[in-house]
Amino acid sequence: MAPPFSAAEYEDRQARMRHAVAYRGLDAIVIGDPSNINWLTGYDAWSFYTPQVLVLGPEIGPVWICRLMDAGAAKFTTYLTADQVVPFPEELVQRPDTHPAVFVADWLGKAGLANKRIGYESDVYYFSPAMLDNLRNGLPNAQWSDANLLVNWQRLIKSPAELEIMQQAAIITGHVMQTAYDGIAPGIRQCDLMADVAAAQIRGTPEFGGDMPAIHPLVLAGEAASTAHPLRTDAPFEPNQTVAFELGACRKRYNCGLARTVHLG
Amino acid sequence: MAPPFSAAEYEDRQARMRHAVAYRGLDAIVIGDPSNINWLTGYDAWSFYTPQVLVLGPEIGPVWICRLMDAGAAKFTTYLTADQVVPFPEELVQRPDTHPAVFVADWLGKAGLANKRIGYESDVYYFSPAMLDNLRNGLPNAQWSDANLLVNWQRLIKSPAELEIMQQAAIITGHVMQTAYDGIAPGIRQCDLMADVAAAQIRGTPEFGGDMPAIHPLVLAGEAASTAHPLRTDAPFEPNQTVAFELGACRKRYNCGLARTVHLG
Lengths: 265, 265
Description:
2 copies of one chain form a homodimer.
Chain A: H1 7-23, E1 28-31, H2 34-41, E2 53-57, E3 60-67, H3 68-71, H4 73-77, E4 85-88, H5 100-113, E5 117-120, H6 129-138, E6 143-146, H7 150-155, H8 160-183, H9 190-203, E7 218-220, E8 242-251, E9 254-263
Parallel strand pairs in A: 1-5, 3-4, 5-6
Antiparallel strand pairs in A: 1-2, 2-3, 7-8, 8-9
């Protein structure tokens, strides 16, 4: 296993981010969005179920702080060195009387940020109010400042290497939609068609596999077509039904979406 | 489409929750965890990408506040009446100068909670620091209080109807693990095997389909076996490899996990 991009590409992203943090007048940013962490380091594992953050600034980091159990994945999905991975002890996991953010605040203080200007992502998933409250309480003399979307803006312009992977996602997306188009018929259960669709998403092509997309395949049929984003059912498709698909595919965290509508004769 | 449980079952859950909120000394709780909202009302749609909350108290709610585009799904996935679904306007979605929580705070104030004791879930996904900050700013005279896990504790003891669905999830899980066991062999790509596994998860049985599980299928093979929760790759399985599976299945949001290890001869 290895990160999907070169070390130079991640270093370039981190350099752009350091510049953005300095430009915003901050000494560091605490990044909680797993996709932003992945973009900056390559880190990839099913680890977001406990708090995890990446700390980065003009003169600090990147340092990855996560649960001890999940620190191992940094070894072969990132180029981070051992001292850039700071695991918090298992004893802090899901305890009512403490929080991993207590450890993170302590680390930030020891790293010289106790009186500094620290940005955080205020409106991302997996960075909870408890995380922020514990950081603030642990470093009461720091100046906490909303830096939401600061990483996302750096992600906006894609590199040639990113465009190549996005094109691979688009190729898989074509196979996925074709699978749905070829398989749909009156009497076929929605779950059976979507099983084939999900398989096509992950199987990819002989050259490259797919990942799980950011959105589950959506099927708008019958009364479900009266709203947005309904989840599929076990019901069979019906004759003369108009069915809208919102599908897509994903390659190395890069998603490609595609929507098409079919009418069953 | 219909909620997976009877109206009486949801009413019982809401009654238990009202009692828990009162016992905690609160006038209402703002629930942000999508799975807790689903447990209390049945609401099911891919709508958590924008803020959404359920408000419930001894003398209020349940009232579901979400994006207008996603309000329609409440009609056929819940028993909520029209006045229990309060959509916020599309203009509030992903704007830098405002937040849906401004609307939620305004609604809570008009509902008589401006000076009341309001609990919130402090450490759940999809209820962000920005959501809480905007609620606090909008209702500065309310007494905000951490009520994390209050819903989860009510969910702990399962009803007979829930146990039946959990047994269905377990049946699908058996098929899923058998699919992995039957399909693995040296030379098979991880993505091809996991495509079959994902399909088995969704296809379910002839009697009932499966949902997407809470965790993506995990394969620990080669160096990935040195850590927890690695994501699968496109690499082929190798002769003499020991491979651990962490799989599972899901039926109507009820997950059943299963871990097994195989050795390739």
